[in-house]
Design a protein that fits this description.
This protein is mainly alpha-helical and about 280 residues long. Helices cover about 50% and strands about 10% of the residues. The protein has a 3-stranded antiparallel β-sheet. α1 packs across α5, α6 crosses α12 and α9 runs antiparallel to α11 (about 200-220). The longest helix is centred in the C-terminal third of the chain and has 20 residues, at about 200-220. It is globular, with a radius of gyration of 21 Å. Residues about 1-5 and about 20-35 have low confidence and may be disordered.
């Protein structure tokens, strides 16, 4: 399998090099862009996880052991460790251009190829068994009163605090900003080192915020590279059931969906976890 994928990589790189010198006029004439490989702008944010390390040697960096234990209980941490790598933009771009959104397969010189749930399991370390993320109780779009109820349970925020955190300009949107989640909740270890109390409520809120941050940066990154849908807050309750979800199939489904959008709409940006995609097709 590895030998075959290395051959695929070599062929695609030759294909990309062949096309990169084409003139702009030739590109415009080719309506389907089949002979052109443009560089996509991936928004995978695994590197953002380094900005919020739950564990660290320094006494003032990271989170207290109680938060770490809660986060470890979710079974999500292996994906952070396994996908903490760089990615090759030309290679990922070549695969995006070779992706057929109708069949969810890569059209390659030797035939078709796809990414399977087993690939997701072995690459990410996430389970492909368990409950579907979008089960029958999952709301596709949370109503605002339910959002306020969830944020009160998860973060101990009142309605006004939730509104202020979700403002984009003067309008509120159903998103959380990843940077704000980090700013609001990271640093429990530093607080304790300074002699300040880290309450049980703060411990639970920090663990919830870290998992939501993880979902936006690793499992469901979008093209913005800076936010996570508020709908995913549903998956945090109850916290001790998070490990029961099939997160391996979730990252696979989201990545394929983002490939589908980029291939169909000829975008110059792509969401999804590009580190996962790269390993899937080259290893």
């Amino acid at each position: 399998m590895k030998v075959m994928k290395k051959k695929v990589t070599m062929k695609l790189m030759k294909f990309k090099n062949k096309c990169k010198n084409k003139s702009k006029e030739e590109t415009l004439k080719n309506k389907n862009h089949r002979d052109v490989v443009s560089l996509m702008k991936p928004r995978t944010l695994v590197s953002m996880m380094r900005q919020w390390p739950p564990q660290a040697i320094e006494s003032t960096v990271g989170e207290v052991p109680e938060v770490i234990d809660l986060v470890n209980s979710t079974g999500l941490i292996p994906a952070v460790e396994n996908l903490d790598l760089g990615y090759d933009k030309p290679l990922c771009s070549a695969f995006v251009k070779r992706y057929d959104w109708e069949t969810d397969t890569l059209h390659l010189p030797f035939g078709e190829m796809t990414i399977t749930p087993n690939d997701a399991k072995f690459i990410t370390g996430l389970s492909i068994e368990g409950k579907s993320m979008k089960h029958k109780e999952y709301a596709q779009e949370l109503e605002w009163n339910k959002i306020y109820a969830f944020t009160k349970d998860v973060f101990q925020w009142d309605g006004e605090r939730t509104k202020s955190e979700m403002l984009v300009g003067k309008s509120k949107q159903r998103i959380f900003h990843l940077s704000k989640l980090g700013d609001n909740f990271m640093g429990t270890k530093k607080l304790r080192a300074e002699g300040k109390e880290v309450t049980p409520e703060r411990i639970i809120a920090t663990a919830n915020a870290y998992v939501l941050y993880f979902l936006g940066a690793v499992i469901f990154p979008d093209i913005s590279g800076a936010r996570v849908s508020v709908n995913f807050i549903q998956l945090l309750q109850p916290f001790d059931k998070i490990h029961e979800y099939s997160w391996g199939t979730a990252i696979l489904a989201h990545s394929l969906n983002e490939l589908r959008k980029a291939s169909r709409d000829q975008r110059n940006q792509i969401g999804g976890n590009m580190a996962f995609l790269q390993v899937s097709v080259t290893e």
